[in-house]
Amino acid sequence: MSHADLHPPKVQRYVVEHIVKSDDSAMNSSTQRLRAFSGRSPRPQTESDYDTWRSGVELLLQDPAVSDLQRSRKIFDSLLPPAADMVKHLRPDTSPTVYLQTLDSAYGTVQDGDELYAKFMDTFQDAGEKSSSYLQRLQVALNLAVKRGGVATRDFDRHLLTQFCRGCWDNSLITELQLKQRKQNPPSFAELLLLLRTEEDREAAKAVRMKQHLGSSRPRAAAYAQYAYADNAEKNDIAALTNVTQQLAQQLADIQKQLATLTAAQSSSSSAALKSTPRRMSGAGQRAGKPIKNPASVPKPGYCYRCGEDGHVKTHCDNPPNSALVAHKKKQFAEKQQKWQRSNPTSRNPLN
User: Are 82 and 38 in contact (CB under 8 A)?
Assistant: First the structure.
């Protein structure tokens, strides 16, 4: 049985027209489909941001197999309100460039090239961020500056490498890849990204091997290192404390010397004063013939001459007269006077 009998020309033509062509058209329609964009804030997870959506439109504009009418229709079909409301007034045959200009005025960046370039220069690696992820952020920021005229397209790779070396905190990675030496002939973004991801993967694999090999010995080595560090720190602290103690001891010895000198001077002056004082007192005692004694105080009545009670006088007494008590108190007072006269015979003060 011949090949023509198995595959007649009519059958071959039908297969080509209906199956192969339909598959090609389906593939083209699927590859040229744009992601949805609405311009809502916050952005839904199923939608793309404006810059990502516009990048897809630019690829569509560069496809020579798609006409302008198809491009405009695909742009309009990918829009959702409120972004779709911005272009509803445009005619179906409007150029896709007009669609982009209208949407750029509403959702595009309003910063000029210089401002975007300054923002690019202020982009640094965040804490915990991989170097490859940081490079991708730089590439997005630099693309915006290039689109707005802040950076020439021919200088894209040079600016990207320079800022990466400036803003990446992993100096060992920069040294390992010798990136600073390649500024005169910088690699492209794709080449540099591949270098970074390869190095990151190598370092991650090495860390896993080290963890598997060392196991429990790594914490022990770290403990020994920590102990040695603590021992050296303790020795330094002891030496510093010893030096301070010696200085304080020297200052204390000087203070003790000064205190001893002052004490000796005060003692000599006090002893001289004490020696002169007894001489004067002894001379006065010899002249008097006997030590001087303070005489006892002269007794006083201390009772009322009207009522005989203690604590007030007659002029302020409101009590009735009591002559018997007054006579008794007067007798006691006379006895006290006699007793005092016997104990103080040399007193010159008269009692009556």
Answer: yes
CB-based burial, 134-158: b 16+ in 10 Å, e otherwise: bbebbbebbbbbbbbebbeeeebbb
Answer yes or no: are the C-beta atoms of 145 and 188 closer than 8 Å.
no
Looking at this protein, which amino acid is placed at residue 335?
Answer: E
Percentage of the chain with pLDDT > 90? 27
Cα(114)–Cα(146) distance, integer angstroms? 10
Q: How far apart are CA 196 and CA 133, in angstroms?
A: 9
Q: Which two tokens stand for residue 227?
A: 């102990």
- Token output for 119: 């923002």
* CA atoms of 96 and 34, how far apart (whole Å): 14
Query: For 138, how many CA atoms within 13 A lie in the half-sphere containing its CB?
Result: 30
CB 199 within 8 A of CB 176: yes
The answer to whether 104 touches 142, Cβ cutoff 8 Å, is no
Euclidean distance between CA atoms 349 and 352, whole angstroms: 9
CA 229 → CA 197, 235, 241, distances in Å? 36, 10, 18
- Using a 10 angstrom Cβ sphere, with 0-12 exposed, 13-18 middle and 19 or more buried, the burial of residue 219 is exposed
Helix, strand or coil for residue 301?
coil
Segment 4-62, tens digit of pLDDT: 555 566 666 665 555 555 555 544 554 567 889 988 888 888 888 888 888 888 888 88
